[in-house]
Amino acid sequence: MKPRILLIYTGGTIGMIKDPETGALRSFDFTQLLFHIPELKQLDCQIETTSFKEPIDSSDMDLSHWKVLGDIINANYDDYHGFVVLHGSDTMSHTGSALSFMFENLTKPVILTGSQLPIGDLRTDAKENLITSIQLASEWDDNEPIIKEVCIYFEYQLYRANRTAKMNAEHFEAFSSPNYPPLAISGVHLNIDRQLLWKGGFDRVSIAKKESLELSPRIMIYRPEMDSKVVVLKLFPGITEEVVKAICQIEGLRGIILETYGSGNAPTSSWFIGALKDALLRNVRIINVTQCRGGSVDMGKYETSVALKKLGMVSGYDITTEAALAKMMYLLAYMPETGDFKKYFETSLRGEISV
User: Pick from 294, 239, 299, 229: which is nearest to 269 by CA?
Assistant: First the structure.
């Protein structure tokens, strides 16, 4: 039986074609996909399509849209062998990271892709990205999918989604995965490095409110809730006490992603350390992530991070800011108030950090 692949269009450049009369870009009807990309007929799979009722630019992506997308995948999970999500590139890493936490114990591929040029453009990168994404989602061995995680495919590279960041607004090589190698490279041959694929299993920490996570690794669990009461605080030379305190004292705030310098370094001013300490005492979770795209947080390596380590701040290690946000939103939504947040965050749940 040919694998059945569900193609989900959320919006973005990839779904645009140029009107031959006006030259303006407009969305095309995805039920006519084979008309626009006849090469898809050569793939050894069945392709069906669905779309957001109102496709959006990815800059408008929010938690409600993540839930709509997750609901579509969850509702169709048993009927398809793989899923390809067409998504605008600007927030693709955020959405991919969120989906990786929303779906635990994935047994099927969920591959996000998009393009820098519309699918109807003469020089478009959309066709290759779409064709190869569908082919990767269709790869089976021993009667099961080879890929069983959330990925991003862009310009000949397949990445673990929660390891990626958009790096370029103009080049076709829009994404990178600085701390983890590509899972697959598309060249003359489609080479999947199976040693790098997420082996899954199941979370061995019990974070759910009402159920244990000690379940069979074959059971997919869908947890769509995310807590939005979080903020990113990026340090910069000259940041003021008023700014830091205003952010740390936001009413109802539950989490801060603190983007520090280098390997987790920050100012040593008493007012700065005091503001963070006060937030922690109010049970605001703070994650130390590096502003550098490559490398890892190593608190205590330099004197400028010793104070953060003494506060008991959570280390993000080599996690991306995009994945840190999604993971924090996920944990805050499902972890009991009495749970050991530091332990849970510093555990790799979906291959998002190297520990």
Answer: 239
